[in-house]
């Protein structure tokens, strides 16, 4: 058990920006929103899944929409309104909140309704990274119902999706609703039990984000290598390093889609990497050879300072290093790959685990 205070938010935002594989919402904006909530309503207690009481009722909350829109149309208290909407619909009161994903601003989104409602947050999430679509959660892969769910906007609208035939249909309906809400909304899913959280969540991810951010901050202040600090804290490897020379990005169907082209520098000179993204980085190629795919993590950071670079902030001339991290084990099973492997995104290639 520990507490998230204002002093922790910068580290969490940095670490979650790295783990977010380019998506999950702008981490700096999320940090500011969480800081405002904690300043007004107080620090938030963080519990490990093992510390949950057996009768816990845990609500998953998160943001949904296009990151490119989220930096212009900033969320307010939609996640709290979605929480109250799902409580009212189900007749159950949440006793804890869990993040849908540890990436970007979604890592701190649960802190906002938790601070307002005086609830703890679980040190876990449903992805161990960020993914673009609602159904891509380990909760749903391993049997937790995806509905009912509530979707809320900043205007005061809330929509209940009572039942769907598959989690993918929940994504389709929630995405259509979000588009009508202006491509930025928040959702809450009907409460889970402590047993369901322990069995299906990726554990200790909020702590990992905090530790990554602290490692980067210490490296900067001490003059040491932030990339080495990141890889020491979260084992992975450098995939590429260079300068962004082209970015193709469009907002369509509620997603930011496109690709980024990076020309190699130093040991990677005379090579070129292209990364495809759908909110998050999905597949990385060097000179047409695939070197990393979902569900493994493809993460861009500023080469000199280790600051995460999200897809909506990627621009020409940036010097970036691309890091690769192995996916959590729950994603590398046949069940996990069927939902979030390369074939699920339309790529005609089999998943090959990243070697570190």
- Radius of gyration, in angstroms, nearest whole number: 19 Å
Return the string of H and E elements.
EHHEEHHEHEHEEHEHEHHEEEEEEEH
**Whole-Å distance between the termini?**
31 Å
Beta-strand residue percentage: 25-35%
Mean pLDDT: 94
Q: What is the helix fraction of residues, given as a range?
A: 25-40%
Query: Major sheet: size, sense and barrel closure?
Result: 9 strands, mixed
Which residues form runs of ≥5 with pLDDT under 50? none
- Mass-distribution shape: globular
Question: Which key terms come to mind for this protein?
Answer:
356 residues, alpha+beta, 7-stranded antiparallel beta sheet, 11 helices, 16 strands, 28% strand, globular
Protein described:
By secondary structure, this protein is an alpha+beta fold. The chain has eleven helices and 16 strands. Strands 1, 2, 3, 4, 5, 6, 7, 8 and 9 form a nine-stranded mixed beta sheet that branches. Strand 12 and strand 13 form a beta hairpin. The chain is globular and about 60 Å long.
Summarize this structure briefly.
The chain is α+β, with helices and mostly antiparallel strands.
Task: Give the SSE map.
Blueprint: E1 2-4, H1 6-19, H2 27-41, E2 44-47, E3 58-65, H3 67-70, H4 78-90, E4 96-99, H5 111-117, E5 121-125, H6 138-141, E6 149-152, E7 158-161, H7 167-180, E8 184-189, H8 194-200, E9 202-203, H9 205-222, H10 226-233, E10 237-252, E11 255-264, E12 272-278, E13 280-286, E14 289-293, E15 297-302, E16 319-325, H11 334-340
Parallel strand pairs: 2-5, 3-4, 4-5
Antiparallel strand pairs: 1-2, 3-8, 5-9, 6-7, 6-8, 10-11, 10-16, 11-12, 12-13, 13-14, 15-16
Helix pairs in contact: 1-2, 1-9, 2-5, 4-5, 9-10
